[in-house]
Amino acid sequence: MSEQTRPVAVVTGGTRGIGLAIARDLADTHRLVIGGRSRESVHEVVASLPSAEGLVADLADCSPGGSLATALEELVPRLPRVDVLVHSAGVLRNGTVAEAPVADWADSMTVNVVAVAAVTRALLPALRAAHGLVITVNSGSGFTAGPASGAYSASKFALRALSDSLRQEEREHGVRVTSLHPGRVDTDMQRELVEFEGAEYDAGSYLDVTSVVRAARLAIDAGPDASVDMVSVRPRGWRPAAT
Q: Is the keyword Cell inner membrane assigned to this protein (predicted)?
């Protein structure tokens, strides 16, 4: 497969966790664009993959002329088509409404929602050209919210709404949109959350990241006539909270 015939996949948050796992899974078949905030971490991942380039940007800076806009202005002309766009970048801010600073709410909405809209908007012509797929990596927190998770859950509810709207808007252009909702996954972010909760970390209680990759593959490998609108995947022993 030549560089010209390889399908193109753009993965934000591609330097760790779910994003990195999806990028590695696609590496043999796709030309990759790996998004991340740190130039060093992006370059390290790019160097480890057979056909990849980097997109270094701070998703918290969505202002005109800012970090994200500048990076996209450089990238978009090089991508006449995008077959898969995976939004895996995100931030987790914990705290009650009474205690969490307003900046945590602003950061959550900017990175987890506004940046997703900005990246998608910039790449829509290339996605339409390829009849491509957008995967928004959401969370169980996109369905329910608990104490001290208001900022994160609010952003994930909003991300689900963005995904639903985009799906309806882009059907006529052949672009599919999958909202992917993993439960708790064994990642660095999960360790941060468990530390905040003051609990003992037990990796066996959480999803292995490869299970989330398989869920993403369900949408990626679906035929061109199919749209996998939403996938929810939970650890095997998970039960909904009592109400």
A: no
pLDDT of residue 190 exceeding 70, the answer is no
Exactly one of 83, 134, 152, 155 is catalytic; which is it?
Answer: 152
Please state which CATH number belongs to domain 8-233.
3.40.50.720
Q: How many CA atoms lie within 13 A of 81 on its CB side?
A: 13
Nearest to 83 by CA among 132, 125, 26: 132
Question: Which pLDDT score is estimated for 207?
Answer: 80
Cα–Cα nearest to 59, from 108, 122, 123 = 108
Q: Could you tell me if 179 and 160 are in contact, meaning their C-beta atoms sit under 8 angstroms apart?
A: yes
- Among residues 155, 189, 18, the alpha carbon closest in space to that of 88 is found at 18
Alpha carbons 107 and 103: distance in angstroms, whole number: 6
Compute the distance between CA of residue 137 and CA of residue 152 in angstroms, rounded to an integer.
13
**What string of DSSP letters covers 208-232?**
-HHHHHHHHHHHHTS-TT----EEE
Q: Which of 235 and 140 is assigned the larger pLDDT?
A: 140
Q: What angle do CA 210, 161, 23 make, to 5 degrees?
A: 25
Residue ranges covered by each domain of the chain: 8-233
201 is catalytic: no
Kindly report, residue by residue over 46-83, the tens digit of the pLDDT: 999 989 999 999 999 999 999 999 999 999 999 999 99
